[in-house]
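Regression test attached.
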Amino acid sequence: MTIAVTKVRVEDKLYQNRYLVDSGRPHIIVRPHEKPSANLLALTYVCPAKCYELNDRGQVEITADGCMECGTCRILCEKGGDIEWNYPRGGFGVLFKFG
Amino acid sequence: MIEQFDAIVVGAGMSGNAAAYTLASQGLKVLQLERGEYPGSKNVQGAIMYANMLEKIIPDFRDDAPLERHLVEQRLWVMDNTSHTGIHYRSDDFNEAKPNRYTIIRAQFDKWFSRKVREAGATVLCETTATELVRDGNGKVIGVRTDRAGGVVFANVVVLAEGVSGLLGTRAGLREMPKPETVALAVKEMHFLPEEVIGQRFGVKGDEGCVIEAVGTISRSMAGLGFLYTNKESISLGIGCLVSDFAATLESPSALLDAMKNHPSIRPLIAGSEVKEYAAHLIPEGGYRAIPQLFGDGWVIVGDAAQLNNAIHREGSNLAMTSGRVAAEAIIKVKSRNGPMTKGNLALYKTMLDESFVIKDLKKYKDMPALLHTNSSNFFTSYPRLMSYAAQSFMRVDGTPKIEKERATTAAFINARSRWGLVSDAVRLALAWR
């Protein structure tokens, strides 16, 4: 049988969520790099909020506004030094209505 | 701020609330820090709540806690791409005066729990991110630095209830950062439907509830679990797989969830629903062997931060609540003897936890994580496909003699895993389960 796959963009999913963005103070920073490590590159696929993207120079960039603070990127990339990871300041970031 | 507290609890999830409530209700001066705007705003769970462990903290919780449905039916599904093979257990015995398991919505439940904590006398400070543990010259933890101006607070003991991805314990070197193979990433959506539609689709009435847990090709050979829980007017639907498997396969979590939603066994159950939230969270999966040092000079670790999660029975919040309560009881005992909160004295927490179901259960399954993680393609893809093949062959009537069907089924299993592989999987599973 055929399955009608309705593809929902992650951005549209995040649109349902409530956030208080700490403008100009991202809680995660990607350290400057020439070529991303395997784990850093993996984040462009496995980040559930698709915060990580490749730019046209082949480097990984982050836009943390839609971050759900799951910590997956921290587990994969903090130790190796690819990223600097903190929680947002108190009160900022994702605010789950249901959780 | 130079106020001195008996205890600071970092985090207002299940373990933190259990600890803060127990400490405050015994008259200790407690400060609880929560980085969210309100308690629950950063917390994510399926969620099933087990009454017994909450009763030990708040016996009359049913009077006013926001509970969704009590469970009368549980379905365990093994899925391939077009089918599911299920074990369903439903019993009217679960319709009892004090039901055993409830579905809950964490943001609402945690607000209620936090109100109880405040009523017990604790000071709860929200919108406050704890950034660092403060230690004295001997390394004893004496307080917590926060992101508030001048925000250092001091206490005799700090209860780290900071969750699986907590910063303080790992930064202070009290515990290691969880490894990619000891945590799962779960994504979840909240699907809203009218109460009566949920009742009809799951054959439940009133506050009765049904939950489904599923393994199989939905996790695309990763070690993972899908779930569908009925709330009053919504369905929590999600799937979680090991972070190490996500990194190796480069599967997209949201695409995985969408594919699960489109599975022919799931799709009719959520048809016409309105999605109101998309959440992601890490789940500790390392089991007994991943539990860190639980206590030290001036500190204890509880809940997810201590990897206290039973992945086999997918129990977590009850282990969290119990560890929070037990840690608090140990602290109260030490204080009642006028003892300092030293590593030697706080060892009482571990002694008491070892005696509880928390450590006993995790110890029982200590070899399961490694077994499932290293054989994920067999357990999560090959066997589910074979099971579907066997069931369909058994049920489909097409004129093939039964003996030939049985031979073909046996051959399919042997082809997929070899005789030795089948025996070895069975033996390893039995040993790990023992």
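Expected vs. actual: identical. Chain B touches chain A through 57 residues (CB under 8 Å).
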